[in-house]
Design goal:
By secondary structure, the protein is mostly beta strands. Helices cover about 10% and strands about 40% of the residues. The protein contains one helix and eight strands. It has one helix at about 5-15, and strands at about 1-5, 25-30, 55, 60-65, 75-80, 85-95, 100-115, 120-125. The strands form two sheets. Strands 1-7-6-2-3 form a five-stranded antiparallel β-sheet. Strands 4-5-8 form a three-stranded antiparallel β-sheet, with no helix packed on it. A hairpin with a 7-residue loop joins β4 and β5. The model has no long low-confidence stretch (mean pLDDT about 90).
């Protein structure tokens, strides 16, 4: 399950109003910690090595899809290929190659034990809706 973050909401408000200089949320990252909550600004323990570092999602791997209404959900898909050993337990969407604002964060469940040559296809979605 993913949760939106406070920093992510602030950046989305800038996108909606054309204020500031908001950057698009096009980066996906994975980690080996316990996924933090909505007030977090970073993964608990982001992976930066073994082929599992933060990457920019482009082309057909970033889109809007329908959950309830047409185009109400942002979707990011990336296939990570491990060059070492890690157990992936958390993932997030960011708006920069390092640091910056985290839009959503969530636990990878079940966790994904990776060894050299393993692949992990990660899909993250953020639905925009009124409750």
């Amino acid at each position: 399950m993913t949760v939106p973050t406070s920093a992510g909401f602030a950046e989305m408000a800038k996108h909606c109003t054309g204020t500031g200089s908001p950057a698009a949320f096009t980066y996906i990252a994975v980690g080996i910690g316990t996924a933090p909550g909505s007030t977090a600004t970073a993964l608990a323990s982001e992976v930066t090595d073994t082929g599992l570092g933060r990457v920019q999602v482009t082309g057909d791997n970033i889109s809007t899809v329908q959950t309830t209404l047409a185009n109400d959900t942002a979707s990011w898909v990336h296939v990570f290929t491990s060059t070492g050993s890690k157990t992936i337990t958390e993932a997030a969407i960011f708006n920069a190659a390092s640091g910056n604002d985290m839009l959503i964060v969530g636990a990878v469940s079940p966790s994904a034990p990776m060894v050299n040559g393993d692949t992990l296809t990660l899909t993250m979605k953020c639905q925009f809706k009124a409750d």
